[in-house]
DNA sequence: TAACCTACCAAACACTTGTTAGGGAAGCCG
DNA sequence: CGGCTTCCCTAACAAGTGTTTGGTAGGTTA
């Protein structure tokens, strides 16, 4: 039974930091290294399909040795996802507190999202695939919370935009929200950092399509075949 | 070792129908029932996280009894995914062979996709989550093939559209393709049949956003707050 | 009635899984 | 030197995994 509550160096989201820490104190840098390779494997194979032995293999050590650094396999994803979401929300909050107009808010959120994908592509892929399935366990309730904040932020900007006339009023706003949200984040499944397009370039193209559509507008420069 | 090749009633994609079938012959209707509940569980929990015992539970029987109908857990997903893709491609081919213009082709493909999501929501969700991870095994190579056909169909329509001036020429066409593809299919993660919107309604709204953007066009009816 | 077939159960099998306990090598500090 | 700390290994554990085997209740056919 995996309930021997005895955390050596908890950094996850569960706030109970009780029980005086054991004598062992693994270095945070090594943890980050291991979490990085773990995230890569999780993203590629899926969380449940990934064995602890595979992660250890990729890290050049044996399965049991991982437990010097981490409590459990679960606390690895926990730490991967929660640190990603923390960084994400500092970026998002900066945008939301900037007092921008609705359109500029959407633009900034999209750009920030693609930057986040650039930095945490593996974590984003994991979040995409497993968050819904993980959110059941109480340890990962913060995933559901984050989803709610997400929705409020985007829906708020969209609603304000419709009220001010900068977004179309004839669209189902919740559909538009899902449309925006999904297209942005699924990009993590094909995006590879160091490719032809920078995150900002992708954000620009993406915003161009979402805001203006893929058919030519009248006042745009004429095409030539 | 799970290699005792002895299929009782193979319907998957692997073309080897060798070895005279054993005396048992399960009814196809019961198979479809079981595959339906299996697809539901797979979609909700993920393929690897789903145990055979859970599926059997949901179907009101014991784990071993499933093996009267199916060779293995793997052949269940195989059959789920391949029958879905078969139906999908008959629909797609009908559209592609209709000789429509680029814009009409895109519209028809999108609408057909949402209809397919309506009919096979669980299968689509499984395809979304697991196809990349399953495509490694030789049995599921048809997933990769399908992905290629997919890309050719959409990219072809987009390129023709750009050439004919009905789509903007200033967009990276591969980026546009990925955006189209992803937004359409991720809808399976939130779509629930019998909801407020019919598949055709969703397709209409989605196409409206993709084609014309979410900001108001000049010649559109004016908004009123 | 007897033979047969369908669809399931009961019980086990071999194997993989996450996890643990104890030990030991290398380096640093007194 | 001896003690201490960091990091990993060896070897095992118990639980859970997909799968197999043999059996059997109930219906259909002859």
Low-confidence parts of chain A lasting 5 or more residues at pLDDT below 50?
Answer: 1-22, 220-225
How many domains of chain A? The number is 2
Chains forming the largest contact: A-B, 52 and 53 residues
Classify the oligomer. homodimer
Total helical segments of chain A: 8
The appropriate CATH architecture of the largest domain in chain A is Orthogonal Bundle
Shape of chain A: elongated
CATH top-level class of the largest domain in chain A: Mainly Alpha
How far apart lie the N and C ends of chain A? 67 Å
Give the mean pLDDT of chain A. 86
* Largest sheet properties of chain A: none
CATH superfamily of the largest domain in chain A: Tetracycline Repressor, domain 2
CATH topology heading of the largest domain in chain A: Tetracycline Repressor, domain 2
H-E order of chain A: HHHHHHHH
Could you tell me the radius of gyration of chain A in angstroms?
Answer: 21 Å
Helix content of chain A: 55-70%
What share of the residues of chain A does DSSP label as strand, in percent?
under 5%
SS-based class of chain A: mainly alpha
The count of β-strands of chain A is: 0
